[in-house]
Specification:
The complex is a heterodimer of chains A (274) and B (268). Chain A has 274 residues and is mainly α. Chain A has eleven helices and three strands; from the N terminus they run E-E-H-H-H-H-H-H-H-H-H-E-H-H. Chain B is 24% helix and 32% strand.
């Protein structure tokens, strides 16, 4: 399996139709990629073109879907695309898109709203709130007691009258309504209220993980933009988050593979999308 | 070097626009025609509204002989020009004019002396306003909340005030440095003096365990986060320009923690 920005090797789980990207091979403890100083080659316009050239003949020749799908999953490219590697006819017909074809994968970057607010933050909340269990075990040290989660909800609901409307839409009970949370609700949780709600209620290592993501989000989602120094700070915090998430929550075991989402590998490269 | 993060936030308005499409496409058989029809009607309505906003106040003023309200602020509001920074606006609800007595009068006299007013009268007639829009664009409102709402109109937003404190250098000289203090605005008052209006906020400072004469209104720090125990000092008037921002708080275990200030995408 390959990722969007780098050619990571993932693990395909046919039963769940998901691909997971672990940093270490659980069987032989071999390091598959490093969060800091990653040496996995980055995708480029040329590598996308090569992958498309590899996949496209299978489609054109009418090979079976069972043959095409592993090829597509292996390369991470489904074939020609107008914005990345167009067909020869499209290349001749849309010369003004040449710049997009030259810059490669960043021609269509992930947007932070979906990648961070609707992906990482809920996936960070789920293990904390005991909504994503490993082998139905509820005694992991990062799981917050149910009564405390209910208290979070009450405290958030109580803050409705003390959070200015310009800063957030009415704050919602995260315990009762987390499934209906919009991006703005998650944004308020990770950037502002989460800091207060979580401190002292989860072990320090996990609080530090969530605060690293919080600090990165505060800069990433700032309307007035970021400076070069702040981009470096985002990079540092996002890599800290990914590295510690793998160390403390995934822990390199096969049973915890569902924590290794493909988007986790993208977060460590998020500054390249700015 | 500054990098704009347009790419990372564009999805918010895009999602909003996509959300409106389902309401515009009402027909399963002719979606495009339906969409175009609705979009045209919306565009016409927007045009009529914009024309109305431009010409209606003048027509209304001409027909009734009354001056049109200042655009952008509700009827009954008062714009107060600020000499430092942008103007602020005091918004209704407002009280009937009444004389300031006791602590309020003493406080307004003190702040006028501090602001170098040439004349400080002994009698003040004031109209109190309960909402204000400072230069930052965010409203400071007060809502009726809590079991004692019948008696007290409680300010539910804290404000960060631009204050200064004195400090002593190692060589013994005294200096002044800017600090942040916190309080809640009980009401705003507009005072005409020296032929110009001045806006003042009547602030009740937060309680601080280390309060002492000349040093008050500070937030405590618990778990590396600023927090307050509650309000509880003698209220006093401060120039409205001293209000730096409105801060959100969340109550946990009898303490009100001050949330990290957010830069809103719009003034809302």
């Amino acid at each position: 399996m390959s990722c969007f920005l780098r050619i990571f090797k993932g693990v395909d789980v046919p039963t769940s139709s998901y691909s997971y990207y672990q940093s270490k091979n659980p069987s032989n403890r071999r390091i598959l990629f490093k969060v800091h100083d990653c040496t996995v080659p980055r995708r480029s316009a040329a590598s996308i073109a090569a992958s498309a050239a590899e996949v496209e003949p299978a489609r054109e020749s009418g090979r079976s879907v069972a043959f095409q799908t592993p090829l597509e999953q292996e390369s991470g490219v489904k074939g020609y695309s107008l914005f990345f590697e167009p067909t020869p006819e499209a290349r001749a017909g849309y010369p003004h898109l040449q710049h997009l074809w030259d810059i490669g994968p960043t021609a269509a970057p992930y947007d932070t709203m979906h990648l961070v607010l609707l992906n990482f933050v809920p996936h960070l909340w789920k293990p904390f709130a005991g909504l994503k269990l490993v082998n139905k075990k509820k005694d992991d040290e990062y799981i917050i007691h149910k009564a405390t989660v209910a208290l979070f909800g009450q405290e958030l609901a109580g803050a409705r009258h003390t959070v200015p409307r310009a800063q957030a839409r009415p704050v919602r009970n995260i315990d009762a309504h987390h499934k209906l949370f919009k991006a703005v609700d998650w944004m308020h949780f990770i950037q502002y209220s989460g800091e207060v709600l979580l401190v002292g209620r989860i072990p320090g290592a996990f609080y530090d993980i969530s605060m690293a993501l919080s600090r990165a989000c505060r800069l990433l989602l700032r309307p007035r933009g970021v400076t070069k120094v702040e981009i470096e700070a985002i990079d540092k915090d996002s890599k800290y988050f990914v590295a510690n998430f793998y160390d403390n929550i995934y822990r390199g075991t096969a049973e915890r593979l569902p924590f290794c989402l493909s988007t986790m590998t993208t977060l460590r490269d998020i500054v390249h999308l700015l | 070097m500054s990098v704009r993060t347009r790419l990372v936030v564009w999805q918010f308005p895009m999602e909003q626009k996509i959300g409106t499409l389902s309401k515009l496409i009402r027909s399963a058989s002719k979606p495009h025609a339906s969409l175009v029809g609705h979009a045209t009607r919306h565009a016409k309505a927007d045009l009529i509204t914009s024309f109305g906003k431009t010409y209606l106040p003048k027509e209304w003023a001409h027909a009734t002989g009354k001056q049109p309200a200042t655009p952008g602020i509700p009827v009954g509001s008062l714009t107060v020009p600020e000499f430092i920074g942008l103007d602020c606006a005091l918004h209704p609800p407002q009280s009937a004019p009444a004389a300031l007595n006791g602590v309020e009068r003493a406080s307004i006299q003190a702040v006028l002396i501090q602001e170098d007013a040439t004349a400080v009268p002994s009698i003040f007639l004031a109209k109190k306003y309960y909402r204000a829009k400072p230069a930052s664009g965010n409203f400071a409102g007060s809502k009726l909340v809590g079991p004692d709402c019948g008696k007290n109109r409680r300010r539910n937003y804290l404000v960060r005030l631009k204050s200064t404190e004195e400090f002593e250098e190692p060589d013994g000289t005294r200096g002044e440095r800017p600090v942040s203090t916190f309080g809640a605005i009980t009401h705003d008052a507009n005072v005409y003096t020296d032929d110009r209006p001045m806006a003042f906020a009547y602030v009740e400072r937060v309680k601080f365990v280390k309060d002492r004469p000349g040093r008050f209104g500070y937030a405590a720090v618990t778990q590396r986060i600023e927090c307050i125990l509650g309000l509880g000092s003698v209220p006093y008037y401060v120039p409205f320009s001293a209000v730096a921002e409105f801060v959100a708080t969340i109550e946990r275990e009898m303490e009100r923690f001050i949330l990290h200030s957010r830069e809103p995408f719009s003034a809302g």
